[in-house]
Records
---
Amino acid sequence: MNLEKFIRDVPDFPKQGILFKDITTLLQNGDAFRLAMNRMMKKYRGEEIDKVVGVEARGFILGGIMAYKLGCGFVPARKPGKLPYSATREEYTLEYGTNALEVHEDGILPGEKVLVVDDLLATGGTALAAARLVEKLGGTVVGIEFLVELGFLHGREKLSGYKVNSLIAY
Amino acid sequence: MNLEKFIRDVPDFPKQGILFKDITTLLQNGDAFRLAMNRMMKKYRGEEIDKVVGVEARGFILGGIMAYKLGCGFVPARKPGKLPYSATREEYTLEYGTNALEVHEDGILPGEKVLVVDDLLATGGTALAAARLVEKLGGTVVGIEFLVELGFLHGREKLSGYKVNSLIAY
C-alpha cells in the first residue's frame, strides 16, 4: 500500500505560500493508519525501550500507540504552561521568535532508553528540543521517529547524532 | 491493579483552588498505561466501530490507541484554527466565556459509528461539543469514553442520551 497517497496537500496553510502536508486523511483511514503505525514500530520490535516521548499535539496520536504497542510508558512533551507538575523546559528558535517544550521532571528517569515521536520533520527544531529534554533528565535518545519528513528543509542535519527515521519523505 | 493510585493530585492547577487530576503519572508507567487502555477498550471488542474521535490534546493519546486497536480510523477534534482543511465547528460554554471544537468535514461520513474519547469528564461541555460535531456530519455516537471522571461536576447529566463510561471516577 502506497501510504503517500493518503496524505493531503493543503495550500496556504498555516500561511500564504506554504503547502501543508495534512496527515488527518491518513489517520482517518483505518487500514492506512494501522499500516503506517506498524511500519513505524517494526524496527523497534524486541528492542528494550523504557519511554516514548510524544510531541504535542499530533505526536501524541502516534507516540501513544507506539508506547502502548512497545509496552512502555508514554511521556508528553508539551507547550509551556500545559503540564501541571514540575517540568524542565527547552527553548527553540522558529522562523520568527522562539517557542519552548516542557517535560515533567519525573517523566524520564536517569538511564532510561527513550524514543521521541512526532508527526512531521520540518526544520527539526522541535524534535531537537524534545531530545535535549530527555538528555537533561538523564535519558538516552535511542531514536527519533516521524511519519512525514520534508527533506528540503534539512531537518536531519539539525538532528545529526541521532537515529532519525521517517515513513514518508518529500 | 488499582489504577487510581497512579493518578497524581496537583493542587492549584490550572488555577488557585482546583485540585488537578494528573494522568501523566499513569501514562508514564508502562504496565498501568497498558492495563488502563485494555480496560477502556474491552467493552468494544468485536463491536463494529468506524471512527474514533479524540479530543485535543490528551484525548489524542487515548483515542489514537483505541482506533489502532479497533482497526478503525482516527479523527482529531481540535481547537479552532488548528485543522488545515474545511472543518465544522461547535461552540461550548466554559465557566467564563466560550470555546469551540472543530472536526474536518470529511472526517466522519454519514452513517458511521463513532466513539468519542477524552481523558477527563468534568462538566461535559467539551465532550458534548465533540458528540454534536459527529452528529452534524451524519455519524452516530456509539459511546463516549473517559479515563477519569469528576462525578461531583455532574458531567454525565449534560451527556444524558449517550453511553458514557469512565475508568476512574471521583
---
Amino acid sequence: MTIEIQALIIGAGPVGLFQVFQLGLLEINAHVVDALPHPGGQCVQLYPDKPIYDIPALPATTGRDLTDLLLKQIAPFSAPLHLGQEVTTVQPRTDGRFDVATSTGTQFITQTIFIAAGVGAFAPRKLKLEGMEPFEGSQVHHTTAQPGAWAGQRVVVLGGDDAALEAALQLAENSQVTLVHRRAAFDAAEPTQAAVQALIAAGRLQFVVGQITGFESAPRLAALHITTPDNTTQTIPLDHLLVCLGLSPKLGPLSTWGLDMQRKQLQVSPETFATSTPGIFAVGDINTYPGKKKLILCGFHEATLAAHAAAALIYPEQKVPLQYTTTSLRLHQLLGVA
Amino acid sequence: MTIEIQALIIGAGPVGLFQVFQLGLLEINAHVVDALPHPGGQCVQLYPDKPIYDIPALPATTGRDLTDLLLKQIAPFSAPLHLGQEVTTVQPRTDGRFDVATSTGTQFITQTIFIAAGVGAFAPRKLKLEGMEPFEGSQVHHTTAQPGAWAGQRVVVLGGDDAALEAALQLAENSQVTLVHRRAAFDAAEPTQAAVQALIAAGRLQFVVGQITGFESAPRLAALHITTPDNTTQTIPLDHLLVCLGLSPKLGPLSTWGLDMQRKQLQVSPETFATSTPGIFAVGDINTYPGKKKLILCGFHEATLAAHAAAALIYPEQKVPLQYTTTSLRLHQLLGVA
C-alpha cells in the first residue's frame, strides 16, 4: 500500500517532532520516519537522562523529558510515526511529488519532504579489522544474543561503556566471558562498574586491557590477538565476539539523493530552509547556512520557516497568513482547545 | 554614575530575557532596560494569563509563566534589570563603544546593544481631538487618580475594556461618573461587565454610547460633546476625563538613532542579526529579514546567533566555540550546576 501525503518528515528527534507541530498549524498533515525504534533521536539515544539547560523557558530538562513534552505538544495532529525504518529511496515523480520507500517496505507519495535527520541514522560502530567480515552475524555480533543462546561458550565482549559492561554481566551468568577494553578505566555508571569489578575479583569474568590486532581462524574464528599497553600480545580463544563500541551516525542513502551537500551537510536558504531540490527542506543539525549553530532551539526556528515555505508550495492559490496560537480561533480548533 | 558594560539589552520581553542567557553562556554580562515596570514585555502587558501554545516543548503556557520560566533560566547570570525607563539616547563614541542614557537618568557605556524592543515601548493611546492638549494632566488623564482625589466631582471615563470598566466602578464610589464608549457592548471580563450593568441599573453610573466630537471650555474644560450612533449630540458637563483607550506601542527615540529602518522595523542580517550599525543587533519582533515570522521562538534563535556574532566583536582575539550545556563543564560552572 502506498501512503499519499502532503509532508514526510525524516527524523523523529526534537526538531522533526516540532516540524509536525508547525506543519499542523498550517493544516499540513505529516508522517514521520525514523531509523530508531523510539522517538527523540540522538537526544534519547545518547543522553536520555542528562540535563539540557538551553531549551528556551525550560531551565533544565533531559532528552527524554524534552521528547515527551514535544510528543504532548504535537498530539493534536496525530502524525503517524513509522519507527525502526530508514528511508532508502527518494525519487522525484513527473507530477512534482516524490516516491519514497523505507527499509521495511513502507511506501509514500509525498508533496514535500523535511529532512530532520540530525547527524544521520545511528548504527553500531564496527570493529575495523581486515578479514573479519565473513564472521559478521555468525560469530561477530553487535547486539547480544537471546539469553542462554551462548550458554557454556567462550564470549569476548569488546568495549568499556554501559552497554559493554551490562552485556558482560549478563553473559557471565551462562558463558565464559572475557571483557576487552583499550584502557583500564571504564566509561559507565558507578554501580555497573562496581558489579563488573566484583565479578573480576571473584574470577567469574576475565578482563584484558588492550586492542584486537589480529585473529586466528580455521576456518571458523578461533582466537583473537590482543596487543596490551606494554606491547605484548595475548591470544584469547573464543566462540563469539560481541562488539560494543557505541553507535556511529551514518548519513546512509541520503547522500545519494542528489542534494547539494557540503561536508556531509545540506546547504539551505535561511529564508525557507529549502535544499537545492524544490519540495525538499532540511532542518536541524543536518543543514548548514551562514551563521548556523547546531542547537535544538535553532532547529525549532528552522522548522517554523520551512513549514511556511512548504505551505506556499502546497497551497499555491492562497496566501497563508501567520496566525497566533493565543488569539486565532482556527488554531484553537486545530489544537483541540476551542 | 556611568555603568560600563559589555552588552545592553533594550527590552525585557521573552526574547530580551533569553538574550541574557545566550550572552551569559558566552561569558558576556548584560544589563537590561525596559519601559514597563515589570519584565515580560508585551506578553505580560497584553495577555498575561491567556494560553500560548507554540513555544517549543511547552504544550501550553501563559505570558506570565513564560516570563517566570525565563527569569529562572537566566538567574545564574544575575543581569540587572533597569525597569520603568526608556532608552532615550544612543551615541557612538570614538572608542567604538556607545553612550546610552535612559529617561530616568541611568547612563551606560556599552560595547554592544541588543534591541529587543518588540513593537516598541507601550504608552497609553491618546484621545485625538484638536485643542484638548492644554488640559492634559490637569483635567485629561490616562491613569486614575489616588482614591478619593476626585471625590464629589464629575468624571467621564472613556473606553470599554477592563481598565475602563474597573476605573468606572472604582470612581463611582466617590464621584459622579459617566462611562462613554463607542458601542453598547464592552470588551471586558464577564464579572466586571455584570458589576457595571448593575451600577447602571441602580442609577449610580451613567452610560452613554457615542464618541467625543467636541468640547466646551471657559477656560477650564467644562463639557464634552458626545455624538451618539443616531447622530444626535449630547453635552456632558465634567471636571475630569479619564481616557482608557488601551496601550499603543511607540518606537520612541529608537527611530532617531540612524539605523536602517523599513516600515518601523530594523533591517538585519539573518547570519548575525546585526543592524546597519556595527555593534548594534536587533532581535525579535522589531527586526526584519527575508522569511521573518514574528514569533517568540524565532526570536530565541535570533538572540542566539546575535550573541555569537557579538562574542566575535567583544573577544576578537579568540574564536568562541559552540559548547553544549549538556556536556560542557565550563558552561556547568557558569550555570551554577557544576
---
Amino acid sequence: MNDTVRLDLEAARRLVAAALERHRTSAANAACVADALVAAERDGQKGHGLSRVPSYTAQSASGKVDGFAEPAVVTDATAAVRVDAKNGFAFPAVDLAIEHLEQKCVNSGMAAAALFRSHHFGQAGYHVERLALRGMVALAFANSPKAIAPWGGRQGIFGTNPIAFAAPRDGNAPLLVDLSLSKVARGKILVSAESGEAIPEDWAFDADGNPTADPKRALAGTMAPMGEAKGAALVLMVEVLAAALTGANFGFEASSFFDAQGEPPGVGQLLVAFNPAVFSGGAFADRLESLIDAMLGQPGVRLPGSRRLDARARAAADGLMLPRSLYEKITALGA
Amino acid sequence: MNDTVRLDLEAARRLVAAALERHRTSAANAACVADALVAAERDGQKGHGLSRVPSYTAQSASGKVDGFAEPAVVTDATAAVRVDAKNGFAFPAVDLAIEHLEQKCVNSGMAAAALFRSHHFGQAGYHVERLALRGMVALAFANSPKAIAPWGGRQGIFGTNPIAFAAPRDGNAPLLVDLSLSKVARGKILVSAESGEAIPEDWAFDADGNPTADPKRALAGTMAPMGEAKGAALVLMVEVLAAALTGANFGFEASSFFDAQGEPPGVGQLLVAFNPAVFSGGAFADRLESLIDAMLGQPGVRLPGSRRLDARARAAADGLMLPRSLYEKITALGA
C-alpha cells in the first residue's frame, strides 16, 4: 500500500494555493502563504508545513483570518516600520516588512519592523534566511498562544516564542539559528498522549505547576521552557519584543492558530536587520568564516540549521513526500 | 572579629577610582569604571563588582588595558554607530555608545552600537537598564573569552556570552533580563573545586567532551550552555552578533579578562535600542503593564531582576558590605 504521495515543489505550491483560493483568500495572498508552507515542508519543518493547510483554510473560511487582507505600513520612520497585518495571514505582512527593511538597512545601517494583528508566521528561520540572502544579519522574535507559565507560576501566559537568527555567507547558505523557547515541541507530547507513553519529567508541568510524566496532564498544564529559569526569562523577553513593543496581543490574549473559532489571534512579530558592512567596518564576512572554520575544525560539530539544509537538498532532488491522507485532504479543499 | 567593612556608595566609588588612577588610568575613565563596578556590587552582582579592581589595575598597570584610551566613533550612520574602545576599559566606550543611541532613537526610531577592541563590560544589565531609564527598549549582546564548546565538540570557542534586555516602566524600575548563556557561573565550579565537592553532571564537560561531576576536570574542560543544544545555538548567535558583526575578537581569540598577560582581549559588544512609541503606535507602556499584571497575578511569580533590586535597596539603606581583605587590597592599590 502506497500511503505517501511524491510531489514536486511547484506542484505542492499550486495545490496549497488552490485550497486557499477556494476559501476566501486572494490569489496573491494564497501564493505567498503557499510559498511559506512549502518552504517549511521542504526544510523538514512539517509542523509549519502543509499540515497547516486544513486549519488555515478553516480560518479563512470562517473569517477568523481575513484572506483578502492587504497588510499596510502604518508607521514609517527612518529605521523603523510598523506593519498592520490586518488579521490576515502573517506571510504577506512579513514580505512587506522585508522590502522595507532592506531599503532602510542600505540607507541607515539597520532597521526593525513591528508586525501586529498578525497570525502564525510559521518557520521563523524562513524570514531571517530571506533577509540574510539579501545581505542582512537578521533577528526575528514572535509570540504565540499561551503555552508557558511565568517562572514559579502555574498558568500559561507566554507562547513558545521563537527566536531566529541568520547571517549571510559568501557562497554558502546563510548561517541559521531557529528555535522555540519551549524545551520540546508540544507535538512531541501529543504523540506520547496518543500512544500512552510517559514523557520525561522535565518537558512539561501539570495544571498545578508540578513536573509531570503524564502527557495528558502535561497537555492540561504548561510547557517547560528550555533552560529553566533563564529560559523563562528569555520567553518573557521575546513576549515583550514581539507583542508589547509591536502593540500586539499577548499569548494569554491570543486565540488558537489551529481552530476557526473566536476572534483573530492578533499576535505580533519583530524583525531586526543589520547591514553587516556598516557595523563591522567591512570585516564581517571574513570574521564569520573564521568562526565557522573554528567550529567545523572540531570532530562531531555541525552548524545549526544543517538538518534543514539536508532536508532541502533531498526535497530538491526527490520532491516532497506527503502522507496520502493529507494530500487528498488538501486536494479536496482546492477542488 | 569583624571581617567585613561597611562602605557607602560614594565612598566605594572614590576608593575604586583612586586605585585605578594610581594605575595608569585617566581620572575620567577611573570614575566611569568605578560607577560601573560599584553599581554591580550594589546590585549583588559581586562577580562584576569590586572583586574586579585588583585584576583591572593589574591590567592597566601592565598596559594590557589602556587606561587612558578615549573611545571614538569610527562609523556614524543614521541608525548605526561603531565605537572603537581602543583596548581601554569597556565602560567609557559603552557610555559613548549610549549617548549616540539615545539621539538616534529619537530621530530614527531605533539604532544599534557595535563596540570592538573592547574588554569586560561587567553587568550587562547595567547598560540596558540605563538605556531603559532614558525611555528605550534595549538589548545587549557580548562575547567573552572561550568557555563553551560548539555543540558536539570538545574545545571551548565561545564565551559565556550574556544577553541582557530592559524595558522602561512608568513609575517603576525597568523590567530587566540579564543572563549569561552558560548553565551556571564558572565561579560556582571554582568554589566546588576549592571545597572538593562534586558538581552536578550537567554543569560542565571534561576535556574529552564528557559530562563530569569532578570540578577540577570541569575547569580543564568547558562549561555547559543553558538549554543544551538550543542554548548552544544561542551562544553562537551571540558570538556572531557581538564579535563578527562588530569586527571584534572571538572568544577563542581573546585573552583573559582577569590576568595582566598577553595581548588585549579585544572582544566586542552590540547594543540595540528601540523607541517603543514608534514601534507600538503609543501602546507600549500600557501593554507592558498588562503583561506584568498577568504575571504577578499568579502566586509565586517574581519578575526577573527582583533580587537585584532588593540588593540595591539594601545597599542604599545600609551601604555595601565588603570583605575586609578586599577593602584593604583596594585601599592599598589607591594609596
---
Amino acid sequence: MNLSVIITAGGIGKRFSSEVPKQFLSLMGTPVLMRTLNSFFNWNPMNEIILTLPTEWISYWEKLAKKHDFKIPHRIVDGGKERYHSIKNALDICSGDFVMIHDGVRPLVDKGTLNRCLNALKKNKAVVPYIELKDSIRELNRDNSISRDRKNYVSVQTPQCFDLKLIQKAYQGEYLDIFTDDASVAENSGMEIYLVKGNEENLKITTPIDFKIAESLIKK
Amino acid sequence: MNLSVIITAGGIGKRFSSEVPKQFLSLMGTPVLMRTLNSFFNWNPMNEIILTLPTEWISYWEKLAKKHDFKIPHRIVDGGKERYHSIKNALDICSGDFVMIHDGVRPLVDKGTLNRCLNALKKNKAVVPYIELKDSIRELNRDNSISRDRKNYVSVQTPQCFDLKLIQKAYQGEYLDIFTDDASVAENSGMEIYLVKGNEENLKITTPIDFKIAESLIKK
C-alpha cells in the first residue's frame, strides 16, 4: 500500500512572538520542520513527502536546508491563502493510495502512533490519533459557558490519515468555517473517523512555552 | 473580603507509575504539593489554607513537611471516598466569604491568574480560569466520533472560585456522575460560571511526561 505524506507548514505564527515562523526555529540545533520530516523519513524512507509552505518562505526554507545539509527528499507545494487551500493543492499531486496529513509543528510524533495509524488504514478510510483530555472543558455560548463531561471528548492530533481518492473528493467542496482539521472536512463529506491512540509527546508547538516543553521532551 | 483556599490532594494516582502519589514527589527538590501551597501563600499569606489528603497518607505528609521544614500554616481534612466528598468536608470548615478550590498537582498557577480570579469574584459568584484549546477535539459517541469546533470550547483549570455559602449549598446535593469539576457542581445548582484567563504553565501533573514538563517550566 503506497503512502503519501503531506507536511503542512503554511502558518505564519500569529501566536508566536518571533519574526521567523516557528516551524523554522531551531529546536535543540535542528529546525522544527526538519525534525518533523525526519520523524516520517526515519519511520519509512519509501513514502513520498510533500511539504506545503507559505510562498514568501520557500526560498528561506531552501537556504536553511542547504545550511543544515538536509537531504530528505520532498516536494514543495505553494501554500494557498488558507490551510484548506494548501492541503487541496498538495492532495492534487499525491501518488499514494493513502495519505497522512501532518502539522509541520508536531516534530515529536512517534513510530508507535504512525504504526497504529497505518494498521488502522487497512480497514478504515479515515484514521486520526487521539489522546485523553486532562483538563475539564466548557462549551462557550453567547453569554455563558456550559460544562461538558471530558470523558465524552478527546483531543485529536495529526497525522490525520485517509484513503487518497476519498479525501481528494472531500476537498473538492467549498471551504466551510467549521473545518478545524482534515477530519472535519472528511466527516462533512460523509466519511466516518476511526480513532487510534496517539502519543502524549506529539504536541503542536504553538507558543514559546510549547517550544520549551518540546526541548525538555527531546532531552529526555 | 475573606478568602479560604482548599487544596485537594486526594488522588492516589492511577495514571502515574510510582508508589508514592505524585503530589508528594520531589519537583526540582521540593514536593509538588509544597510548591502548590507556596504559590498561594506567596500570593497572599493571610488566606486560610485547607488541604484535603487521603487518610492513609496524612502521616506521610506530616513527616515530609517536617523533613522539608515546611512552615506554611494549613489545616488538614481527611479526604472522603471521592473527590466530591473531600471537597464537601473541606467546605464545611471554611471561614471565608469566598473560596478557591485548587488541584494539589497544579503547582504552577501564577499570581496573574489568582488576581484575575479574585477581581472577578467581586461581581460574580463562580469564577474559573480557562485557556484556549490547541488541538481539535472530538465528541465520542457509541460507535463514532464527531468533530467539535474547538473555537467553541475552552480548557478549564483551577482554582475554581466561589461564593462560599452558594458552593456549600451546591455540595449539599447528591453526587452525580457528570461532576467532573467544582464548576459542574455549581452549574448544576443553578450558578453561572464566569471565565477568566488562566496561565498556560498551570498544568495538571497527571503523567510522568507532565512531570518532565513542569521541571522545564520551573527551570525557565
